[in-house]
Write a structure and sequence with these properties.
The structure holds two protein chains of two kinds.
Chain A: E1 4-9, E2 12-17, H1 22-28, E3 52-55, E4 62-63, E5 74-76, H2 80-93, H3 111-119, E6 136-137, E7 142-144, H4 154-162, E8 168-171, E9 178-181, H5 194-198, E10 204-206, E11 219-224, E12 233-239, E13 242-247, H6 261-265, E14 280-283, E15 286-289, H7 292-308, E16 313-316, H8 323-336, E17 342-343, H9 350-356, H10 369-372, E18 375-379, H11 383-386, H12 388-401, E19 404-409, E20 421-424, H13 430-436, H14 438-441, E21 446-451, H15 458-469, E22 473-478, H16 485-490, H17 511-516, E23 522-526, E24 542-547, H18 552-556, E25 559-562, E26 571-574, E27 579-583, H19 595-606, H20 615-625, H21 633-637, E28 642-643, H22 671-675, H23 678-682
Parallel strand pairs in A: 1-5, 16-17, 16-23, 18-19, 18-21, 19-20, 21-22, 23-24, 24-25
Antiparallel strand pairs in A: 1-2, 3-4, 3-5, 6-7, 7-10, 8-9, 11-12, 12-13, 14-15, 14-25, 26-27, 27-28
Helix pairs in contact in A: 2-3, 7-19, 8-19, 8-20, 9-15
Chain B: H1 5-16, H2 27-38, H3 43-53, H4 57-66, E1 78-83, H5 86-90, H6 93-104, E2 110-111, E3 117-122, E4 134-136, E5 139-141, H7 146-158
Parallel strand pairs in B: 1-3
Antiparallel strand pairs in B: 1-4, 2-3, 4-5
Classes of the chains: A alpha/beta, B alpha+beta.
Chain lengths: 693, 160
Amino acid sequence: MADPITLTINGRALQVPAGTLVIEAAKKHGIEIPAFCYYEGFTLQAACRMCLVEVEKMGKLQPACTLPAAEGMVVLTESPKVVDARKGMLEFLLTNHPLDCPVCDKGGECELQDMVFRYGAGESRFVEIKHHENEKQWSPAVYYDPARCILCYRCVRVCDEGLGVGALGLTHRGVHAEITPSHGDHLECDECGWCIDVCPVGALTSGTYRYKSRPWEMNYAGTVCTHCSNGCKTTLSVRNGEVIRANNRDRSGINGEFLCVKGRFGFDFVHSEERLQAPLLRKDGKLEPVSWSEALAAVAAKFGEVKARGGKFGVIGSTRTTNEENYFLQKFARQGLGTANIDHHRSGDVVTLLDALKGKTDALATVGDLYTTKAALVIGSDLSQQHPLLAVQLRADYRHHQSSTYVVTPGEVREDQYAAKSVRAKAGEELAAVEALREDLSKHESLVILFSDAIKGEAVGKLVAFGDSLGAAVKYVCLQDYSNSRGAMDMGLLPDLGPGYHAAPAAGMSMDQMLAAKDLDVLWVVGANPLENTALASESAFVVVQDLFLTETAGRADVVLPAASAYEKTGTVTNVCGEVQRLKQGPKVMGVKSDLEIMGLLAKELGLSLGIWTADKVFEEIRKTVHGYNVALPVIATGGAAQTTPVNGGVPVTVRPELIRSAGDTLFTSGTLGRYSKMLQGVMEAPGELYKR
Amino acid sequence: MTFSPELEAKFAKMVQQYPQGRQKGALIPMLLFAQDEVGAVTPDVIAEVARRLSVKPVEVEEVIGYYTMLTKEPRGKHHIQICTNVSCMLTGGEELFAHACKKLGIGNKQKTADGQFSLEETECLGACSWAPAMLVNYDFHFAITPEKLDQLIDSLKKTQ
């Protein structure tokens, strides 16, 4: 960047880099210039004329959003002339805008309302009847009220530029101009609802939230989305214990304000009528609701009996429960039950990657790195479908920094739109295809390689060797499926590796082996559904399941303990990039307990001393004992993300690649949870069959 | 979808007239010619033009919505456009339009039941010196009076 220049805004001399827009220069120094159409990070529009400012020696008022700051420029942002112009603009905007603020969803957090309040265009000279169009439903998620629309194009731009979907446009002109959805009268898109978030007025409203509440009547809980592994921060709006909205307008967290359909609308599983709200105990072959004490006693009796006679336990952990719960579970299994048979559904070969990165530091990318890297290579993943935040980051990197993205996938993906090169490779041939990109990749000084379960086992080592040979600073992301898939690995939910990837005292059975073992005495499943497509070989096994719903696995159980979802508890989770973030409790659901509490009560019932079972205490222990988790507490306590620094190679790798298989979830599926979200089931887009273009 | 060989040849030439990467400049002429041949900008036409010019279908919709000369509804065989802009208004354009409505029994942007005529009130046709002016499809008619309009419509009816 060239030398900074000095300009004067409202009598204050400010230094900003050359090329900075006046609106940004002002913002940087705490001077607000109002704007509807200007939106940071997207193309300039200069449509709303709200940001007009007075510039000395320039005859007319200038739009601050498109005016680059120049040396010696003297700007006034609140002079009488400017204020008068803004008042005039607001009067125009209100010619057809209905004054239905008392019932409008946006009331209280509406930018137009704020501006009218500030500049007081309280009287109108227009006496004509307001032009009106009725509101329209575009999809279960998105509603549009044309009369309220002020045509700022924010929605059109985020959809097109931010996501590459381009489902919104603007048709007709003059007072008849309105936003139009991709398919005439309805939307077929990602249903992410970003357009609703950026709408400065109440023109775009959310299917889950509309006409339900006022913004000041809700409690807000900034937590982490429980669906995919990207770890987006989502702020739940809770009213009377019920979540009615999720967004992230304060841009806290690694995702800024981005959320996909799952983060923004897929929270409704929490209040599904199919939620289990009482423990179930199998009596005479039927699962019957019982009290917590009866259920826990039944489990403890069985666990105690099997442990005493040296029977065979199998423990399957979750990819959605917190780090604390995962840590406590493996401690319970290894120390409490004395079994080494513990595993979870693995969806990415983190273990081999960490081993292959031996001797390297700073080789794991963060979500933020995807926005700053010069180049990225995506292998085997339909990123915008499976890892929407990572896709948005790469796209923003391309848009703002002209980065180069390379794609190696079996089929067309949305990244093809802007990819420097797209290579189609059949499953199993990805590494060869990557080799063909060597020349292109070695041109860049930094590179992030994202790989799915297409690269596992030996292939991971080969990929890292390939990365080493490029001579660039290469970082890696091992893509995984669910919100705490990475945490489950880190916490040692593996038959041969304990917390922090240290060798477990004894190697146990993998998940597949447990399910196939005919002599298994107890199967304890915490927040997973391993029996979805597989039958349990051991017919006599006593099955204990902790879950939100009566899944296939819970249906086979002898005791089902209703668990709280991630939105109902505290703790930490680790995202796909190894960034630890903290959950915050939002809603409350009657009758359920967090998995940590359930395990703690079971330990008490069994007379085991596994330590205090509060999330904070367990996390303290994790910080002390699990390699890499000694993260800065203030960062995560304030809602930030702290990347872990896991082991630097030397992992006793015994991973069998066939155990690693991604469930292949798309934007509209989310394992078992997605089945209980009416919103995800309700949108019409066929999973995976989205705009590839 | 494919168009007639003549139109296909025209499109092939048209696309080359724009600099590389700016092919979407051909959007408006392509839509106009396609509309003349097909009768309206149908969903098929939108999808096809979007595909050929590598634009999103919704961008095509934006253009169609903006320009009144593009229509998604098929028009009558004789599309009558009467100017009511300043010069024509001063010389009786509005009365002429009202007369046409009465004569054809339809209103603005409507079509007769037999599909022969459609009517539209239009902005300046650039024929102010010969106001009031009107268009039948692509043919200009100048200095129109209600009588001349009647004759014109009757003669069009006869030619059917």
